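Batch job 17 of 40 flagged for manual review because the log was empty.
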Amino acid sequence: MSLKKRLVNNGLASILSKGVRVLEQLFLVPFFIAAWGAAYYGEWITLTIIPSVMAFSNLGFGSAAANSLVLTYASGDKQKAANICKTGFYIITIMVLIAIVLGAIAIYVLDIFHVFDKSLINSQDAILAVSILIIARLLNFYDQLIESFYRAAQRAALSINLLTIRAALNLAAGLFVLLLEYGIVAFAISQLIVTVLFSILYWLKGRSVLGLYKNYTGTKDAVILKGITTKGLSYLMLPVWQIIYFQGTTFVVRIVLGPEAVAIFNTARTLSRSLNQLLYLVEPTVFPELQIAIGKNDWKTAKQIFRVSIIGVFLLSLIGVIFLAIFGLWFYNIWTNNELELPQAMWYTLISAMLFNALWYTSEMVFRAVNQPKRMGIYGIIAAILSVLLTYLFATFYGITGAAIGAVSLDLILVFLVVPNGCKIMKMSMNDLVSHGADDFRELFQKILKKIKK
């Protein structure tokens, strides 16, 4: 299959995936509020910080093993790729076991200090639901390694479609629970059942698609183990800064402004980032082909993919900001049944982040494509800590609008840190990005016009 056809297939699969992802983020909120109430839902968001922290951790060793496997497979060393798969599965399993222990300790310590007793949610229900969600999140640790099977086999679109099915099943299961007005324990159980069944099928299908084990038997390799561990610790900084940012800002709003403010802050941030999911269509579409091109040392193709991606995403973000500025507040009131009051200044502040996010997020994929995550991890941690501190400071003085200003600061900081270094990895300057990117777009536009005329 040609590069063009693979990009088209990846793009179509990504569109469907992000559509379901937007539904997953937005669709259930009115049902949560209707079934549980705004304050109770705000407390539930706060409680899910623990499983969310556990979920972010799978971006570490799973990413290290997955990217190593794809780059090695693309270079033609199939035996080493099989060894990476075997070794990667081993170390991910070790991390799952460690995470189970750490999760249990965290819940035990929080219970000792009666943290759960201070919530609007019954403490026993809270502990049980959080424990179940932790197990579900830990099973997802294997996702990235399995996804690399499809990517290495140049069947990324199939993987995206399968993950979309899982998201849709999670959405349907959650909706079923909320319509029946069950509580948080039933909701957590529904997510666990979907995760268990899907993970088994996803793994079996991935092995079949790659077909690596038909001719090669992987072995656990000490050198590979050391390499994955080293890279994994670097990748682990990526979820760490996301944990600091997303959960940190949520916690700050809860402490400074209260549980109902958490519901406003998180729903507003979710809606303001909803169109980001459309922008993120580009990354899963081009990333598999970008990484394959780099693995084959085809830098000309890799540079073209990168330039078109970053400029295209930025132009789309401009359209997104205008759209949300016009229709966003109207939709928010309908979406939340007019039960949450969102200040206009806060809304316009949050949607401005889309412009900055489009630039740094698209550039960030380069660090993963070349399997060099350390620098991005450092940049993210610096920006996240500064953003949480600013969120606390501005929330204290300016309320929930100030919290939004602090949250948006992360995207602005990362633009100045990530974009120039992403260009450097791609062996180009910022000037090359703009000038050659414009040429790439003109060439692409001309090709589209020719096809339309035909």
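Reviewer: the log was empty due to a logging misconfiguration, but the result itself is present. DSSP finds 18 helices and no strands in the chain. Unflagging and moving on to job 18.
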